[in-house]
Amino acid sequence: MQFELPPGVADGTVYLNGEFLPLSQARIPVLDRGFIFGDGVYEVIPVYARRPFRLAEHLRRLQRSLDGIRLANPYPADEWRRLIEELIARCPHRDQSLYLQVTRGVAKRDHAFPKDTPPTVFMMANLLSTPSAEAVQQGVAAVTAEDNRWLRCDIKSIALLGNVLLRQQAVDVGAVEAILFRDGALTEGAASNIFVVRRGVILTPPKSHLMLPGTTYDVILELARNAGMPCEVRAVAREEVLSADELWLTSATREVLAVTSLDGKPVGTGAPGPVFRRMYRLFADFKVRLERGLEAVPEHR
Ligand SMILES: Cc1ncc(COP(=O)(O)O)c(C=O)c1O
User: Fold this and answer.
1) 249 CA to middle of ligand 1, Å?
2) Residue of 192, 171, 172, 131 lying closest to 180 (CA atoms)
């Protein structure tokens, strides 16, 4: 049986529970706990020139998320690597966004964990659509919002309703992201990490249960430190964000983008600042070196 795919969705090859098959033929039972409870975790891995970016770190974060929800990892790292490489090879695009998720499987509906139920494993790879040249050159708009999500934001849970509602608050007013605060301090974006520049110093909150430990967040801090750019990882107060010289958001698919308007007001001069432009170049050079194989894929095994 084939499913009709939503508009704009190509019928690419996906991976589901041990099989590679067309997306239009991939199906899971409605009693899957991912569907019923949002009981699962996921990863999004950017793939540049068919090379998965920071794969070891994504697999380590996946393990952390699985541990956080007490679900056994279905595959050892080598098997994940093999399956991911095969999916990348089957995808027609050079640069891809690889999505994977693991749920607690199919069982009678009951909140408590089922016994001896195999997990559901799903992966798909799509064209990586990075921000437009216009978004990079002019920056993007964001809004502020109270972070009303649960207290385990460090788990990359598929239960994203809080994030979905917050992101929609931004979209409703023509912005691209909601920047979140809890008890007066910056946490992260609805689907990104946030960096602030004040008087030339890059500030970002430390990793904690209140934010997702972003893989791009790590790359940005490494690039900044290697380039000798001053940065401080510490709590950032709402007032420091509201009066920032520059604001950036980072994620695997948005890379690093300047936020030039916040709640309808300009951030700094209202254009991407000099520290952003330097970081953007460092990030772009870093990707080129990776693609040319001049740089070992920087991952900590
Ligand atoms: C809530 C949240 N924070 C941060 C990030 C950034 O993480 P990464 O850089 O690994 O994409 C994401 C990514 O989607 C996210 O959903």
Assistant:
1) 10
2) 192
